[in-house]
Specification:
3 domains; about 40% strand; four-stranded antiparallel beta sheet; Arc Repressor Mutant, subunit A; single chain; five-stranded antiparallel beta sheet; Methylamine Dehydrogenase, Chain H
Length: about 700
Amino acid sequence: MPLQQHQFLILTALVESSGKEVSREALRRSLWPDQQFLDFENGINTAVARLRQSLGDSAENPRFIATRRGHGYRLLLPVTWVRPAGDSGDHQGATPAALPEPPARAATAPWPGSVRSRFFGLTIGIVALLGASFVLSWNRAVSHPPDQRAVSSAARTDFSVYPPPGAALTGSFALSPDGRWLAFVAAPATFEQSRIWLRSLDGVAARPLAGTENAAMPFWSPDGGSLGFFADGRLKTIDLRNGQTTTLARAPRGRGGAWSADGVILFAPDVDSGILSIPASGGAPSLATDVAGAPSHRFPCYLPDGRHFLFLVLRDDRDESEIHWGRLGGPETGRLLTASSNAVYTKPGYLIFARGAALLAQRFDAGGLRTIAPPIVVSERVGVYGEAGPTGLGAFSVSADGTLATTDILRPALRFSWFDRHGRRIGTVGPPGDYEDFDLAPDAAHIAVARYDSRKRSSDVMTMDLRSGVQTQITDDPWPDGALAWAPGDNRLAFTSLRAGTWTAVVRDVALDGRERQVGACGDFDAWFPDGAHVLCGRAAEKGRSLWKLPADGRGAPVSIVDGVSPVAGARVSPDGRWLAYSPEQAARQREVWVVGLRKEALPRAVSLGPGTTPHWRRDARELFFLSGQRLVAVPVETRSQTPFGVPVPLFDAPLPARDSLADFPPQFAVSPDGSRFLFAIPTESSPRLAIHVVPNWTAARPAEHSW
């Protein structure tokens, strides 16, 4: 009966205690004596569950291992110590077969001395119950470089990987080519602090990788010795053998990479770019695909010959996106299938991709570049990153040995809470929900909310009474709606919607008959002007994006306000109409809050003096608030001064949901008219923890006849 490393250590501890309870803390010290970054609670639970499974035991009706919840474990069977062959020591008892000593671990992680010196052998009542001799063997966890023994995927059972303490998984992860390692991104409240963690699938410990701060979308080198990733607006690599990181190319909002055996990396540098190629050793990028009018090419994946590759052609309607093939050094491309996510190739000849909410596998002839049979369902539910605003990254990864990792990208339940200027929670409003965006009404008694519907995989607009918590549905259609803003002084609500096939600004009267008017194309809707007759929208431009002033009635020509900026993370016009505050990307993908005079009073200037997103004005325009990471900051404004913007003053750290650098939309908040209270949507304590589910040898577990 082969046991993995941590199962072996737990059983050894139980046997050595001979019927006495072994505390969870004692197990933690035995299993992870030198590790600080680990979800010990979940790790112990997982290891004990796997040991029980190996023994055929049950926590509900234990025969071998008893549990005292929250305290420890006790072996229920008698133990007899025996002498191995050749041992001259005087030990009591006898057994037909003595246990061999486990093999020594690598020098970097020595085998616990108590076991090395005292483990002679044992026989227990399990022998009779299992009807066979009971022999333990240890399958040790490997450490990089990957040149040691590994447990095959066929020997493993399904299990889940949880984030380290104090952090949350972001949905961005990748299995190593040999299926022995999982690289995943975990983040605290702010994406600036996300980083890659590395975990062996033969163990429970995970360790963070220094130099991967702000990371997203890791991908492996074919030999498993390096990782590529995106961080700080750059494509980077890290050598796992020595920890060295290398910056290869500019990638403002990278959308996926792939690494060939010949050392060529394919990557999508931005949300509206084609696929580029670059040597992993460094050099100048070259164009591999031309978007040719498509919104975006992204998430490349090499095919077995190392010359052809797959990529996603993203459409505004994500479910109408397509998987195409391309070839290095040539302009040829071809369409393969319709998908809702990227696709990956895996042996013995499948494409894995999402369509709708399901994860599918379709037989594929890599040499002939054609699909062979209808797809089959691998999982009824899989997440796709950016479901409210299409991103197209499927929450799955497949290794060459048949290991599959998936997650549903469970979204935390959020609840609206008021905080004072000291960060004290002073009130909670309405029921928990999957809220994406919100804006405070002029009467400060209502909010407009974009709420995600997992059944439709899109968001609808509703209003909520902040006094009673009563919600009123405003839109109910198949298309995502969001980016909300109330008109000043009345009941009109502006938002963006995909109902016209492209992102369009819509103005709706929520109090009267619900009449709507489509204002015009608007990739990033931001705010109203104080006159209530115009809205502020972001549109693509020849260089970057531009902020435009659009007539709210849909009549008249738009006027450009700011040209050639990067996509902004929030923009607001001051209530007196004098200033526009916005948050463009600067160097290394850092955002700052800038202001520009709308009456030709001043050139654009930075006021955040550091990172900043999501600006909001106090109603009298005497303060400007923004988020710097998770910290809420206030900038005093002297409206009659020639230098009106004062020094930023930190207020408090907001309990925001976890994010990483793949997130396109900044965290949201709202400000009371007098600037004394701040409304945030914060995770509830009962929010589900996102976990990555690992299925070894997915081809053996797939449904045989369930086709799409």
